[in-house]
Amino acid sequence: MSTKDFIEKDYYKVLGVPKDATEAEIKKAYRKLAREFHPDANKGNAKAEERFKEISEANDVLGDPKKRKEYDEARALFGNGGFRPGPGAGGGSFNFDLGDLFGGAQGGSAGGFGGGLGDVFGGLFNRGGTTGARTQPRRGQDIDTEVTLSFTEAIEGATVPLRMTSQSPCKACSGTGDKNGTPRVCPTCVGTGQVARGSGGGFSLTDPCPDCKGRGLIAEHPCPDCKGSGRAKSSRTMQVRIPAGVTDGQRIRLRGKGAPGERGGPAGDLYVVVHVDAHPVFGRKDDNLTVTVPVTFTEAALGGEIRVPTLGGPSLTLKLPPGTPNGRTMRARGKGAVRKDGTRGDLLVTVEVSVPKDLSGKARDALEAYREATAGDEDPRAELFEAAKGA
User: Fold this and answer.
1) Comparing 144 with 191, which gets the higher pLDDT?
2) At CA 222, angle to CA 217 and CA 228, rounded to 5?
3) By the 8 A CB rule, do 40 and 52 touch?
């Protein structure tokens, strides 16, 4: 989240709550909206997914009292066109960097903001009402990657190797950009990596310096490997643990596993999108596994015990009550997918009556005798026709 987004976005409006809403009201509003726009409930709906991200971002800020206080202060100061100094502040307009104000939060999450605004203003202004030049640490980029798991790996969890390519400090010049390792301070931005841009609102915003591309340093003898940027593409392989119970399309965030930062800045995050292969026998419904088991007509009519397979474990025995209808679903508790709390869902067993294609003479005679014995019984389709007449 950029500083601009932090100031300009109205998170109260996103959640549909007033600015004086209590923590309980914010939590209630977030839960209601999260259920409505959750990706699992809106598969393939890009607008719902974007709305869910916006809702989550708003909750991250307003749901944390400290972040909410910083957000309210920032909106009060800068949300209406600028900052106007009080008496004795030196007169004129003040040029300062919002990145300095928020502790280098650009490119990071709302959680990356430093202390409250009051902690910053004590050291913000120098002589003459301007800020001192200082180079901010730069957070590393986030990396997106994908992984494909088997059905069993998704249910039980797996450790998989991921090969990633990202920007990192150039090894040839140790990240300086100069082949001799002695870059000079950029005279345009005096090492800050930023230049002021007037906003017309009583203060100045900043842009990356066009001469040093935001680095604050200029290489007089550019490194041939990185062309003076100090950054180069690097590949690495990581062993990443995918938790048990992940679903197809789920996006997992691994903090600090992205590209390395600059000038002591933190590394970015790694986002892994999980794809799950289908299983030839088992399916999945939320935290439950599903399986369809064929049974004979006599097992369904007379009852009996049937063996049912489980995923990665021994088979279990279920008792069919007499007169079990086709399509009935029974539940084997604790044989499903792993939940977030470590417990397991259930195995849902659906009975499918199997009709034989070929009958022996003895079996056919027996069925003929059964048909004659039940000829006077109630017509199973009578209710169907009665319902059709009344419609």
Assistant:
1) 144
2) 55
3) no
Question: What pLDDT, in 10s, does the model give residues 291-333?
Answer: 999 999 889 999 999 999 999 889 999 999 999 999 999 999 9
Residues 262 and 137: their CA atoms lie apart, in Å, by 6
Q: Model pTM? A: 0.50
pLDDT at 1: 54
By the 10 Å C-beta count (0-12 exposed, 13-18 middle, 19+ buried), 203 is classed as: buried
Place of tokens 């019984």: 377
Look at the alpha carbons of 89, 90, 95, 96 in this order and tell me if their dihedral is positive or negative: negative
pLDDT of residue 317: 94
Q: How many whole angstroms separate alpha carbon 170 and alpha carbon 223?
A: 9
Q: Is 384 helix (H, G, I), strand (E, B) or coil?
A: helix
Give 217-244 as a DSSP string: EE-SSB-TTTTTSSEEEEEEEEEEEEPT
**Pairing mode of beta strands 347-353, 184-185:** unpaired
